[in-house]
Amino acid sequence: MIQFFRKIRKSLLTQGKIGKYIPYALGEIFLVVVGILLALQINNWNEHKKQKSIAKELLKDIEISLANNYTQLNFVINYNQEGNTSAELIKHQIQNNLPYHDSLDLHFSKAIQYSTPVLKNPGYESLKVFGLNLVENDSLIKALGDFYNMGWIETLVFRQESYYYGTASPILVELFESVAMRNSMKPFNYNTLLTSNEYLSILNTMIAYRKDQNVWYFENLQQLDEIKNMISEELQKP
């Protein structure tokens, strides 16, 4: 088409018909501009398609990480609940002045146990490298940012470990032959243990800490469910 306009324009210019030349010259320019715009549009469309493909792959990686984090949180929740069950059993022994039995040794250990979830986010970190704007769903990006803000975990860990190593551990080593989570703990003197207000305080504090942590962890499970649904919707988009 451009060649057609160009031939007519040259013919008119040769014949000196300037009045008719100008419209054909403008027509040629118009076609060139339209061609450039179409090329840019196709290029932009291809680039957008490429970015959407990258975004979907990254979201799939995030989806896998979230599934692992979900398992990790459930493990810690159950671990905390197991610890509280043992702590309550021992409190029942103490409050009712029940006799010692070696089956209690494992519960003495479980009563002080605690764990911290290790939440991994390689997919989210990769997305940040590529650019969060790859994902067009702002609500999803905000939800991911809120979930992977690890400050709350660091606070829980610091508080738990500060209490355990700073307060509980020095008392426990005076009451038990050895102090270790996930292993049996035999008291030096069971009757002394029954009358120890400090030990009872440790049990109550550990129960409270684990309950508090589980509140956070249950909230995070709900967050994960919401995020997984949002990612699923994004992946289903064409």
Order of helices and strands: HHHHHHHH
Write down the overall mean pLDDT. 83
Number of continuous helical runs: 8
Computed CA radius of gyration, to the nearest angstrom: 34 Å
Strand content: under 5%
Looking at how many chains there are and whether they match, the oligomeric state comes to: single chain
Outline, from the CA principal axes? elongated
Low-pLDDT ranges? 16-21
**Class of secondary structure makeup:** mainly alpha
Number of strands: 0
The tally of domains stands at 1
Keywords: Membrane, Transmembrane, Transmembrane helix
Transmembrane segments: 21-42
Describe how the helices and strands are arranged.
Layout: H1 2-14, H2 18-95, H3 104-110, H4 122-130, H5 138-147, H6 151-175, H7 190-194, H8 197-236
Helix pairs in contact: 1-2, 2-3, 2-4, 2-8, 5-8, 6-8
InterPro entries: DUF6090
Transmembrane segments: 21-42
Keywords: Membrane, Transmembrane, Transmembrane helix
Report on the architecture of this protein:
- It is built from 8 helices and no strands.
- With 238 residues, the protein is an all-alpha fold.
- It has one domain.
- Helix 1 packs antiparallel against helix 2 and helix 2 packs antiparallel against helix 3.
- The longest helix has 78 residues.
- The protein is elongated, with a radius of gyration of 34 Å.
- The two termini are 36 Å apart.
Keywords, please?
single chain, 238 residues, 79% helix, mainly alpha
Brief rundown of the structure:
This protein is mainly α and 238 residues long. Helix content is 79%, strand content 0%.
